Amino acid sequence: MKNTLTPTCLFLALVLMCMGCSTKAPLNTASEAAPNPVQYFHVDPATAGEVTGKVSYAGPKPTPKKIDMSEDPACVSAHHGKAVDESLLVGPNHSLANAFVYIKSGLEGKTFEVPVTPVVIDQSGCWFHPRILGVQTNQVVKIVNSDPVTHNIHPMAEINREWNHSQGPGDPALTRKFIKPEIMIPVKCNIHSWMRAYIGVLDHPYFAVSKDDGTFQIPNLPPGTYTLAIWQERLGTQERQITVAPGQHAVADFTFKGK
Amino acid sequence: MSSATILKTPAALFPQPLRSRRPIPLDRLIVPLLTVLSLPLTGCRAKISEMPAGTPITIHPPLGLPAVPVPVDNQPTLQTVALGRRLFYEQRLSKDNSLSCASCHNPKLDFTDGRRVAKGVGGATGLRNVPTVLNAAYLPLLFWDGRAKDLEQQAGSPISDPIEMNQSHKVTVAKLARDPEYRTMFADAFGSSDITIGRVEKALASFERTLLSGNSAFDRYRYGGDNYALSPAQQRGLAIFIDPNKGNCAACHTIDPKYALFTDGKFHNIGVGVDDEGNLKDMGRYNQTHVDSDRGAFKTPTLRNIENTAPYMHDGSLQTLKEVVDFYAGGGNSNPYLDKDIRAIKLSGQDRADLVEFLKSLSGDLPSNAGPTEKR
Questions:
Q1: Contact B339, B297 (CB under 8 A)
Q2: How far apart are CA B272 and CA B327, in angstroms?
Q3: Cβ separation of A152 and B344 shorter than 8 Å?
Q4: Which residues of B have a catalytic role annotated?
Q5: Domain A49-256 -> CATH class
Q6: What is the rounded distance in angstroms from the CA atom of residue A164 to the CA atom of residue B172?
Q7: Quick check: A174 contacting B, CB < 8 Å?
Q8: Distance between terminal CA atoms of chain A?
Q9: Does some domain include residue B57?
Q10: Do B168 and B276 share a domain, yes or no?
């Protein structure tokens, strides 16, 4: 037994060693050419359309509430100007800013490339900038602390992994990713209770945040019928069906009732 | 003293059951066997005793510190402490004669180096922040990961560590042996002029046991009956420090009824050193124990003299005491092995400022006779 085993083992070892050397290059190419290469969907510029619209708030314009940062004197001085609550930002002509508009369905089966440019969220003046942001799954979110104080950013994700991380003054930016679609992830600072942001994570690039004048634009959309959804942190969500014909411009205005 | 240990050693080496199993024939064999066996063993030990000689001393702890634990086989003497002090500032302990213990444990910086992580021979970058030697005498385990069981074991490690002093113990012993002054000092300290790494370690450990710092404002307030030793802000900070529902700092940075070490001597994952993927960069205590809950756990450092030993944490990642307090207030960095006691705590800006003020009250008197000595 022993006598037969030894040459067998030796032979096997030799084979393994040879394989190790000779197959190294082919193995690498094999892993690069994965069995199911991801086929990214590319929009045909000839037929691409877009959705635009305006978001309005029908209620009375809210009086801005002052945020009390006296808890942390460093924040008071870091926040140049007075800090007011931004959870309901109503501009002239009932325009509603900071609403998150996105394609909720109609893009099934299409895989979109992940943008290489990171989305930046800055902690500045003890405030998150921007407050509302969209990001694609696996896109890099770069978290910056521009303040002279420590922040502890805490995305309270439910579908993605929930985490929090301390970031002192001058610390390098954090780079994190969210791997699953999730609408919306509330973000807080564990140290400064008034800091709030919301991150919308989608597996496609068709989302927008309404601007100060309430308008939004979702360009470069392949023709089709979609469910367009809108989310606002205090006013909730709305949805509607839209159809984008080839090369056409669809309009979808939203109005939230006053509270 | 030394002959007693020599006699004890071989018997201890011999397993008990073996002797009782076959009593009659073996017993006759064992006596000569023992003698034969013990000869080479005791021979080695008997040749150079590592028991201290000279004048035994008692180390008197300052206000706020307990009696100094001392190993049976290394009772401090005037001579071992003096030798340890000399060795502590001895640059010949390093490969290129550039570094002594004091290079990283600088008495001017309360026996730390002010760097993020240690710097070794040739500029080698260490892995972790240099802890103070002050009050290390009380620690049950040494190093951030607790890999040394006492100061003796600790002392020899940086000498031979490739990223620290990078010199084999053999070379260290040979270098010192070339210096007649050392031969005299070793003779005074251990009864013969022989130099062994064990003697070097024992002398260093005995010197380090004298590096105590107490009688801080906190000690005078808490143990000295001086109600005015702490400012109002520091008193408020102390209250937050010990309140389990506020800072809860004393859960690990312990304060006892008669003394305060400000460390439980244990290991905790407080979420320092979490990378962008959410993983731990340094497994810490886990590398010693391979217990899952020890992943990313590091020894609780003392907080005594903390004002003078920045930067903080095992990786030196926090620069100021304010950053440290804010780090805890925010609940650290999440990771799967975070200690259950680490969570976001509700502390107002005033609370956090008071805590920082309190931490500054922990700066104690520094030991006298601890600096470098003139050559004799």
A1: yes
A2: 9
A3: yes
A4: 164
A5: mainly beta
A6: 47
A7: yes
A8: 86
A9: no
A10: no
CA distance B66 to chain A (A): 36
Sheet holding A174-176, edge to edge: A128-129, A119-123, A141-145, A174-176
- CB contacts, 8 Å: B271 with chain A: 166
Examine residue B88 and state whether it is found in any structural domain, yes or no. Answer: yes
Put simply, the answer to whether B330 touches A72 (Cβ < 8 Å) is: no
The DSSP bridge pattern shows strands A207-209 and A100-105 to be antiparallel
Q: What is the CATH number of the domain that holds B129?
A: 1.10.760.10
| CA atoms of A104 and A202, how far apart (whole Å) | 9
The answer, for A162 touching chain B at a CB cutoff of 8 Å, is yes
User: Which residue among B181, B209, B237 closes a domain?
Assistant: B209
Helix (H) or strand (E) holding B86: helix B78-88
Nearest residue of chain B to residue A76 (CA atoms): B349
**Beta-strand relationship, A196-202 and A182-189:** antiparallel
Beta-carbon pairs below 8 A across chains A and B? 64
pLDDT at B44 over 50: no
Tens of pLDDT, residues B201-248 = 999 999 999 999 999 999 999 999 999 999 999 999 999 999 999 999
What lies within 8 Å, CB to CB, of B185 at 6+ separation is B79, B82, B83, B86
Q: Which residue of A has its CA nearest to B277?
A: A176
ipTM above 0.90, yes or no: no
Asked if the structure places residue B52 within a domain, the reply is: no
pLDDT tens, B58-81?
999 999 999 999 999 999 999 999
How far does B327 lie from chain A, in Å, by closest CA? 6
Q: Which residues of A touch B318 (CB under 8 A)?
A: 168
- Decide if B61 is inside a domain: no
- Please tell me which of the candidates B276, B327, B350 has its beta carbon nearest to residue A166: B327
Between B274, B276, B323, which is nearest A168 by CB? Answer: B323
Res B22: pLDDT: 40
Same domain as B333, residue B258: yes
Cα–Cα–Cα angle for B64, B307, B206, rounded to 5 degrees: 50
Q: In which domain, by residue range, is B290 found?
A: 217-360
CB contact under 8 Å between A165 and B319, yes or no, is no
Beta carbons within 8 Å of A196's beta carbon, 6+ residues apart: A87, A128, A131, A186, A187, A188, A233
Q: Do B195 and B239 fall into the same domain?
A: no
Query: What is the domain count for chain B?
Result: 3
Residue B176: partners with Cβ closer than 8 Å, 6 or more residues away: B90, B92, B182, B186, B195, B200
**Domain residue ranges in chain A:** 2-32, 49-256
* Same-domain status, B94 and B165: yes
Give SS3 for B27: helix
Looking at residue B195, its pLDDT comes to: 96
pLDDT tens digit string along B121-153?
A: 999 999 999 999 999 999 999 999 999 999 999
**Nearest-CB residue to A150 (from B327, B344, B348):** B327
List CB contacts (< 8 A) between A154 and chain B: 330-331, 344
For residue B375, name the pLDDT band (cuts at 50, 70, 90): low
- The arithmetic mean of pLDDT across residues A227-249, rounded, is 96
Domain check: are B222 and B356 in the same one? Answer: yes
Are B149 and B227 members of one domain? no
